[in-house]
C-alpha cells in the first residue's frame, strides 16, 4: 500500500522568509509519480507539479522549487521569499503507475500542510 | 473549456435523505474520480471510473454509489445520508495514456444533520 506523510500540520512564516514543506512517501513500486497541489482559502485544488520516479532532477519554477530524493523517499517543496498569497494548504500526493486495468493510477494524498504567511 | 464542474456548491441534508452530487467535464478525459476531504485527513478516494461503463471502489466507498453512462458525467449518489458523510466532495478528471495530473472541480460542501 502506498502512503504519504506530511508531518507539518501548520507552518507560520513572515513574508519574505523561505519555507520548506516536507513530504515523505512509501510505496513498493519502482515506478510512481509524485504531485504537489495547492488549496487556497477559496477551496479549489490547484496542480503545481508532477514528478516521476525516474527523474530525480530538482525543479525550479519562479519562487517554487522541489527537491526529490529517492534515497530518503522525500519530495520536499520550498517557497523562496514567501508572500501572503502563498497562504494555503499544500498537499503532496503519490500515484503508482499500474495502468488503467491495474486500478487506474489512484492518487493517495497526504494530510496537507497549512501555510500561513503574515506581513 | 469549463473544465470540471460540480453542482451544487452547498447542500444541507437530513439524516436518511438521498441526493446526487453532479460532476461533469468537457475535456474528454476518460478517468474520473470522487474524493472527500475531511479536516486532518487530506483527500480520500471514494470511487473512480476509467471510462464509460466502468467504475470501481476507492478507499472509502461505503454509503456511496456511482455510475458512468457517458464520458462527460460522473454523478455520486448518497442513498441514505448520514452525519458521517458531512464533508467537502471533490470530483476530478484526467486524461489517460500515462499518469497525468488530475483536474479538480470546485467542490461541494455537504452537511448532514
Structural class of chain B: mainly beta
Please give the alpha-carbon distance between the first and last residues of chain B: 36 Å
What is the straight-line distance between the termini of chain A? 41 Å
Compressed to H and E, one letter per element, the order of chain B equals: EEEEEEEEEEE
What is Rg of chain B? 13 Å
Helix content of chain A: under 10%
The SS-based structural class of chain A is mainly beta
Q: Rough shape of chain A?
A: globular
Number of helical runs of chain B? 0
Largest sheet of chain A: 6 strands, mixed
Got a strand count of chain B?
A: 11
Mean pLDDT of chain B: 93
Written account of the structure:
The complex is a heterodimer of chains A (119) and B (113). Chain A is mainly beta. Helices cover 0% and strands 52% of the residues of chain A. Chain A contains no helices and twelve strands. Chain A has strands spanning 3-5, 10-14, 19-21, 24-26, 32-39, 46-52, 59-61, 64-69, 74-79, 88-96, 107-109, 113-118. In chain A, the strands form three sheets. In chain A, strands 2, 5, 6, 10, 11 and 12 form a six-stranded mixed beta sheet that branches. A four-stranded antiparallel beta sheet of chain A has the order 3-9-8-7, with no helix packed on it. The radius of gyration of chain A is 14 Å and the shape is globular. The model of chain A has no long low-confidence stretch (mean pLDDT 90). By secondary structure, chain B is an all-beta fold. Chain B has strands at residues 4-7, 10-13, 19-25, 31-37, 43-51, 54-57, 64-66, 76-78, 87-94, 103-104, 108-112. In chain B, the strands form two sheets. In chain B, strands 2, 4, 5, 6, 9, 10 and 11 form a seven-stranded mixed beta sheet that branches. Chain B is globular and about 40 Å long. The N and C termini of chain B lie far apart (36 Å).
Amino acid at each position: 500500500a502506498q502512503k504519504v506523510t506530511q508531518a507539518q500540520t501548520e507552518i507560520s512564516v513572515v513574508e519574505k522568509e523561505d519555507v520548506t514543506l516536507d513530504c515523505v512517501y512509501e510505496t513498493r513500486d519502482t515506478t510512481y509519480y509524485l504531485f504537489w497541489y495547492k488549496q487556497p482559502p477559496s477551496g479549489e485544488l490547484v496542480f503545481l507539479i508532477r514528478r516521476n520516479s525516474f527523474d530525480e532532477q530538482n525543479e525550479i519554477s519562479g519562487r517554487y522549487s522541489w527537491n526529490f530524493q529517492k534515497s530518503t523517499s522525500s519530495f520536499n517543496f520550498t517557497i523562496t521569499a514567501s508572500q501572503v498569497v502563498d497562504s494555503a494548504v499544500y498537499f503532496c500526493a503519490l500515484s503508482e503507475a499500474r495502468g488503467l486495468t491495474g486500478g487506474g493510477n489512484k492518487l493517495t494524498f497526504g494530510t496537507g500542510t497549512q501555510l500561513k504567511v503574515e506581513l | 473549456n469549463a473544465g470540471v464542474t460540480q453542482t451544487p456548491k452547498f447542500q444541507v441534508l437530513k439524516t436518511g435523505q438521498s441526493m446526487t452530487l453532479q460532476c461533469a467535464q468537457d475535456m474528454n478525459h476518460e478517468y474520473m474520480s470522487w474524493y472527500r476531504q475531511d479536516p486532518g485527513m487530506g483527500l480520500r478516494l471514494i470511487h473512480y471510473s476509467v471510462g464509460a461503463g466502468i467504475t470501481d471502489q476507492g478507499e472509502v466507498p461505503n454509503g456511496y454509489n456511482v455510475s458512468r453512462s457517458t464520458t462527460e458525467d460522473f454523478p455520486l449518489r448518497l442513498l441514505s445520508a448520514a452525519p458521517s458523510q458531512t464533508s467537502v466532495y471533490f470530483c476530478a478528471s484526467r486524461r489517460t495514456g500515462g499518469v497525468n495530473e488530475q483536474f479538480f472541480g470546485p467542490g461541494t460542501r455537504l452537511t448532514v444533520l
